[in-house]
Amino acid sequence: MKTLVVQVPVLVFLINCIPTAPQSPAAAPAPPGPPNVTAILEKDGHFTVFIKLLQSTKVADNLNSQLNASSQGLTILAPPDAAFAGLKAGMLNSFTEDQQVDLAQFHVLPYYLPQQRFETASNPLNTEAGGSSQLLAMNVTAVGNQVNITTGETNATVSSTIYDDNELAVYEVDRVLLPLRFYVPLPPPPPSPPPPKEAAPEASPAYSAPVDSSGAKCQLGRVIHSMICVMLALAAVP
Q: What is the pLDDT of residue 51?
C-alpha cells in the first residue's frame, strides 16, 4: 500500500510534464458574399415564373455580378406567380428573346432604393432596360406606405418588402410591369439628309461665226456703180 501511494503522485507529475502541441488559433469566418437574387426569391416560394424569366434571359447572372462589383446596389420589383397568371394566355411566350430580356431588366433598378425614398424619387425611374425613351418610362408615385408604379401600359402597386439589406432591395409588385414599347411601335428614324448636289459645270459660250463685212461692202459698191452708169446714160441722151 505504501508503494502505491508513492507511485501515484509520481505518475501525475509525469503526465503534467509531457509537452503538448500548441493549438492553432481558430480561423476567422469568411466574410459573407453578396446576396443572391434568385435564392432570395426562391426562399419566399411564389416567384417561380419570375425566377425562370431571370434565369432563361441570363439577367440573374448579371444581377449577381453587379452586386459583387458595384457599390450602388440594386432594386428588384418582383411580380409573383399570381401576377403572371393574370396576363393573357400565351403572352409571355409570344415575346421575342430580346423582349423577354427587356421585360426582365425592366423590373430592375440599377441602384438601391429604400421604400422611404420612393416618395422623393425622380421620374421616370431608370431601369436596367433603359429609361431615356418615353416607351420605356416607369413612373412612381408614393403617399406614405402606398407606392404606385405606372408604365403607360401597366398600373401596379408595391405589395410588400421581400428583402432589404441596405444594398439590395426586393419588393413584390402585384402586376407584371409591361413596357409601353411592346405595344407602341418605335417611331421611324429620321430620314437621312439628301446627298449634296454637285455643281453643274459652267456652259461654254455658244460659237458664233465672225461676220464677213467685205461682201456687203462689195455689193453696195456695185449698186452705186450701176446707179452712176444709169445717170450718165440718161445725161447723154439729147
A: 97
